[in-house]
Amino acid sequence: MRRRRVAFKICDIYFPEPREVLSELYGACMLRGMVVDLTDRNGDRLAVIEIEGEQKCVVVPVRRIREVT
After folding, report:
1. How confident is the model at residue 16 (pLDDT cuts 50, 70, 90)?
2. Distance separating alpha carbons of residues 12 and 21, to the nearest angstrom
3. pTM, two decimal places
4. Where does the chain show beta strands of DSSP type E?
5. Cis peptide bond N-terminal to 16, omega within 30
6. How far is CA 66 from CA 13, 17, 62, in A?
7. What are phi and psi of 32, to 5 degrees?
């Protein structure tokens, strides 16, 4: 198999951690979504955001939100 192009899922990566690979590849990409809830944790204000085009929510510190429309 050496020197052959292959395909694989990020979740199947054994080393390094899949989230590390995702962060390096896509960490600077901007996502858009709608704030569906706000909360506080350890004094940090957090936004629950539903990602556009997905039915998944993520939690992001409010101070890290780049654009508000």
Report:
1. very high
2. 11
3. 0.75
4. 33-41, 44-51, 57-61
5. yes
6. 31, 27, 9
7. -125, 150
| 60 pLDDT above the threshold of 90 | yes
Local structure of 58: helix, strand or coil: strand
Domains of the chain by residue range:
10-64
* Whether 2 contacts 15, CB under 8 Å: no
- Span 29-38, pLDDT tens digits: 999 999 999 9
Q: Which residues pair with 41 in a beta bridge?
A: 44
Read off the tokens for 51. Answer: 């990602």
Whole-number Cα distances in Å, 68 to 11, 18, 32, 35, 63:
32, 30, 10, 10, 12
